[in-house]
Amino acid sequence: MYTARRKIQKDKEAEPSEFEEPVAQSLFDLENTNQELKSDLKHLYINSAVQIDVSGNRKAIVIHVPYRVPTEKTFLQNSC
């Protein structure tokens, strides 16, 4: 069965953090509920996600993705 855990790819021994799991779940849910984005998000995965503080008591999420995405041409074609 395909689960949100497959949206996180880390080094062999590394486990996802408590923060990364809901980020991956959101990405997984978006892929499965939005037919327009499904093909674009199918091969996208994250390496890590962190929450940082920015000015004005605001927070931001930084999501790290691999530099080389397996479907790089697909992303380029869809963004043009």
UniProtKB/TrEMBL annotation:
Quote the cellular component terms of the Gene Ontology held in the record.
ribonucleoprotein complex; ribosome
Q: Which UniProt keywords apply?
A: Ribonucleoprotein, Ribosomal protein
Concerning InterPro entries, the annotation shows: Ribosomal_eS7 (IPR000554)
Residue ranges of region Disordered?
1-23
* Gene Ontology molecular function terms on file: structural constituent of ribosome
Identify one Pfam family in the record. Answer: Ribosomal_S7e
Family listed: Belongs to the eukaryotic ribosomal protein eS7 family.
- List the PANTHER family hit by this protein, alphabetically: 40S RIBOSOMAL PROTEIN S7, SMALL RIBOSOMAL SUBUNIT PROTEIN ES7
Q: What is the official name of this protein in its record? A: 40S ribosomal protein S7
The organism's lineage? Answer: Eukaryota, Viridiplantae, Streptophyta, Embryophyta, Tracheophyta
